[in-house]
Amino acid sequence: MSAHSSRPAEPYLSTTAAPGSSRAGEAWLPPAAHRVAHARRLALATALGAAALAVLALAGWVSGALVLTSLVAGQATMKPDTAVGLGLLAAGLLATAARRGGRRARITGLICAGAATVIGVLAFLRYLTGVELPADELWRDRAVTVGDWAPAVMAPNVAVAMALTGVALLLLLRRRPGWVRTAQAFALVVMMTGMARLVGLAYQVPELERFGPYTGMALPAALCLLLLGAGTFLARPTEGWTGLLAGSGGTALIGRWLLGTAVIVPPILGWVRLTGQDMGWFDPRLGLGLLVAGDVSAFLIVGLAVLGIAARIEGERARAQHTVRELVWLRTLMDHTPAAIYMKDLAGRFLAVNATFARMVGRAPEQMIGLTAHDLLPRATADRLREHDLRAQSGGRAIQADTVLPLGDGVHEFLTTLVPLADSAGTAYGVCGIATDVTERAAEQRERDRLQRRFADLLEAAPDAMVIVDGHGMITFVNAQTETLFEYSRDELIGAPVEMLLPEEIRDTHRRHRRSYTAHPRMRPMGAGRPLRGRRKDGSAFPVEISLSPLETDSGVLISAAIRDITTRERAEQRLAELAAMVESSQDAVFAQTPNGIVTFWNAAAARLFGHTADEIIGWPWTRLVPPDRLEEAKSLLIRLRAGERIDNVETVRLAKGGRAVEVELTFWPLLDDEGAVTGIVASCRDISARKHQQAALHQLYEQQRHIALTLQRSLMTQPPDLPGLATARRYVPATGGAGVGGDWYDLIALEGGRYGVLIADVMGRGLEAAAVMGHLRSAAHALAKTGMEPERLMAALDDLTCDLPERLVTCCYLVIDPEAGKLTACSAGHPPALLAAPGEPARRLDLPVNTPLGLGQGGYRQTVVGYPRDALLALYTDGLIEIPRVDLDARIDLLAGQLRADGAGLEQQAERLLAALLPDPAAHDDDVTLLLLTLPAAPPR
């Protein structure tokens, strides 16, 4: 902020310095707008009248109608040079008096006034010097000669008046403040010159028309000079003597009265005196007495009227002084108030400001008068302030507006009250603004609003229904959970009594309790020890839990109620009680513990199993029941449970009372809260000592049977011999589960004519029975094949044999390879398809007729003959190689075919590759697997 004088600014008054005055302290009430407008219009009218008379005279000279140059026959005529000069003065006056005359009008006025001045001066110089100028030939009146002087052209008094009028107009057009009164004085001289000619005509005094023997002033010229003098005097109605006469104060009124009296009364009384004397009504002495008496009477009457006006002015002055004192007092108060106060006119210019506002913008108060907000503030800020001013003016009533102003020490926020100003007639003339700096208050309010929003957000995000009521029990706030819980909309609840959320039968009781709580508010649960019920919009009631809290606010104490629907909890408690009764009566030991392993529940079965009562074990760590060699196991289980993992069927050992070891099977499951955190652990425990003894006996029996089965299988499933000319690779992978004995087998048989028989089969099931069936069928199939029986007949014979065995099904595939013909004959009884891979081609399935497995007794087996190329590769296998739970069987066969390639690699290498691709983890396989690879022999060379 810039420093300025500590002298308080002068109070704003509706007075300004008198026009043309330079004396300090001289005050003047500016003229009313209508009086100024009348003066301007009158000045323009006089200019037009003078121009009309000048044009009329010129028309008379041009047309020869000389009466137009004198208006009255026998009187002096207006000369052409006079008419031209007066016309130029009329044009200059029009340019001077024009309110909105621009630069072009001003230049035109200067040219016209200057030309007329030159004409007047030259005409007057002619009288003084006697020099004849060339232009005189156009103007000379040769009929008149006076002594040694040149013939008269323009009357000398007209020449002087014309020059004075031109100079006056030049002074007005130059717009210099000190020259206005001089110009108006010249105008008065011109006006009196013209009036003298008119008085001479009225009083029949020819001497007033001319000076000596020179040409007299024409009547039209006198009228023009009177009009031009009056118009020049009125051309600046707000300045100089005219401004004083047009003022709104008492001084101007007195001046107008005195001027009017001086101009009107003496000429009228003088004319009356002369007329009376000419008519013989009285002699000259009596006429003079009457004239003096009339003048005294007229001026006495005017004096008395002026006295009344002066008295009224004195009263107004006293009131004005009182008003000034009030304004000084008000200004002193304004300057010492912390609010910024200012007044603006309708254009937004400052009329008055107090010291506070001046300090804010870094200016002295007197420097701001006449400026606008755009001169002091950034454009955007000033535009907003102007919008506020216009809104107050257009609305005609006080408004409040928030404004932000960038000041020297930062941005400030103001609350501004704008009051439109109007005069007694109701005409608006400005606006008054009172701006209070609310920067700190606004910051505090924003902080309060932020805290309130945060508080509201917290209430809105609360899991419970939140209801806030005032001291009269009317709801002032609810959150979304309240709408959901009670099924009312927010609009329905705000302003309603809180009892609408309660069943009707308890509302009166609640009102009494509410009034008691309001008188002594404190944080506590509502209705401690009593069941509480809420009421939904549909009238249904439900159990609730309510917590009450008082809230201190500026408007008084509010009551906050957190309402929770405990329907689910009551049901859970009821269910828990039922479950507790069931657990307590359970035959299995059930106990609970904290995540840290502290026992919190112990049922009767646990007490019977371990010998500890609930009182003895609750509160103790669970590790009290763990043998020392099992502590690491117990810690590992606890870590997994803390992570939220459920653990089923853990067989371990725990200690009963007295140190007795008990073999148990434990199942643990963690208890989780709504966010998934572990809050407790529940375990069921079962004594498995008797079951362990039974399992040991069964295991011993199983091992005996398994040993017998393996011995039988090894004795029955002998390794087929290698046949000359038939290259093979063979793999058998026994199952890892069950009895360990399966029913898979294969056989290679040398047939007559250089042919080969190849058979692979799978007895469904395991154990001794499957091994026995496999033994019967293997022997029968080998014997039948040696007879040279066709594959379809061999399958029919094996089907009959299988039907005689105990409820067994067998899949089987038998092929007869004829190298001489390059063909093979095959028949399949429900067995997985054989795969054939030719060199350079992908493996494909052999297209064999679909036949039922052996043992169904349906017969009708069919065979097919398939040709094969040289060095083709044949793959036979059992279902253990391709079957995996929940995996498509065809996809597994396609995988096997994709790995089978007749690429010249060894059969053993091919077999290892196939097993690695289809059995990546043989230990996890639960079925026997048999794989047989053959390189189909070609015909021997002849």
Automatic annotation (TrEMBL):
<feature type="transmembrane region" description="Helical">
    <location>
        <begin position="256"/>
        <end position="274"/>
    </location>
</feature>
<keyword id="KW-0812">Transmembrane</keyword>
<dbReference type="Pfam" id="PF00989">
    <property type="entry name" value="PAS"/>
</dbReference>
<dbReference type="Pfam" id="PF08448">
    <property type="entry name" value="PAS_4"/>
</dbReference>
<feature type="compositionally biased region" description="Basic residues">
    <location>
        <begin position="513"/>
        <end position="523"/>
    </location>
</feature>
<dbReference type="InterPro" id="IPR035965">
    <property type="entry name" value="PAS-like_dom_sf"/>
</dbReference>
<protein>
    <submittedName>
        <fullName>PAS domain S-box-containing protein</fullName>
    </submittedName>
</protein>
<dbReference type="Pfam" id="PF13426">
    <property type="entry name" value="PAS_9"/>
</dbReference>
<feature type="domain" description="PAS">
    <location>
        <begin position="575"/>
        <end position="645"/>
    </location>
</feature>
<dbReference type="InterPro" id="IPR013656">
    <property type="entry name" value="PAS_4"/>
</dbReference>
<dbReference type="InterPro" id="IPR013767">
    <property type="entry name" value="PAS_fold"/>
</dbReference>
<dbReference type="InterPro" id="IPR052016">
    <property type="entry name" value="Bact_Sigma-Reg"/>
</dbReference>
<keyword id="KW-0472">Membrane</keyword>
<keyword id="KW-1133">Transmembrane helix</keyword>
<feature type="domain" description="PAS">
    <location>
        <begin position="451"/>
        <end position="520"/>
    </location>
</feature>
<keyword id="KW-0378">Hydrolase</keyword>
<feature type="region of interest" description="Disordered">
    <location>
        <begin position="513"/>
        <end position="537"/>
    </location>
</feature>
<dbReference type="GO" id="GO:0016791">
    <property type="term" value="F:phosphatase activity"/>
</dbReference>
<dbReference type="Pfam" id="PF07228">
    <property type="entry name" value="SpoIIE"/>
</dbReference>
<dbReference type="InterPro" id="IPR000014">
    <property type="entry name" value="PAS"/>
</dbReference>
<feature type="region of interest" description="Disordered">
    <location>
        <begin position="1"/>
        <end position="24"/>
    </location>
</feature>
<dbReference type="InterPro" id="IPR036457">
    <property type="entry name" value="PPM-type-like_dom_sf"/>
</dbReference>
<feature type="transmembrane region" description="Helical">
    <location>
        <begin position="149"/>
        <end position="173"/>
    </location>
</feature>
<feature type="domain" description="PAS">
    <location>
        <begin position="330"/>
        <end position="370"/>
    </location>
</feature>
<feature type="transmembrane region" description="Helical">
    <location>
        <begin position="110"/>
        <end position="129"/>
    </location>
</feature>
<feature type="transmembrane region" description="Helical">
    <location>
        <begin position="42"/>
        <end position="62"/>
    </location>
</feature>
<dbReference type="GO" id="GO:0006355">
    <property type="term" value="P:regulation of DNA-templated transcription"/>
</dbReference>
<dbReference type="InterPro" id="IPR001932">
    <property type="entry name" value="PPM-type_phosphatase-like_dom"/>
</dbReference>
<feature type="domain" description="PAC">
    <location>
        <begin position="528"/>
        <end position="578"/>
    </location>
</feature>
<dbReference type="InterPro" id="IPR000700">
    <property type="entry name" value="PAS-assoc_C"/>
</dbReference>
<feature type="transmembrane region" description="Helical">
    <location>
        <begin position="217"/>
        <end position="235"/>
    </location>
</feature>
<dbReference type="InterPro" id="IPR001610">
    <property type="entry name" value="PAC"/>
</dbReference>
<feature type="transmembrane region" description="Helical">
    <location>
        <begin position="286"/>
        <end position="311"/>
    </location>
</feature>
<feature type="domain" description="PAC">
    <location>
        <begin position="648"/>
        <end position="700"/>
    </location>
</feature>
<feature type="transmembrane region" description="Helical">
    <location>
        <begin position="82"/>
        <end position="98"/>
    </location>
</feature>
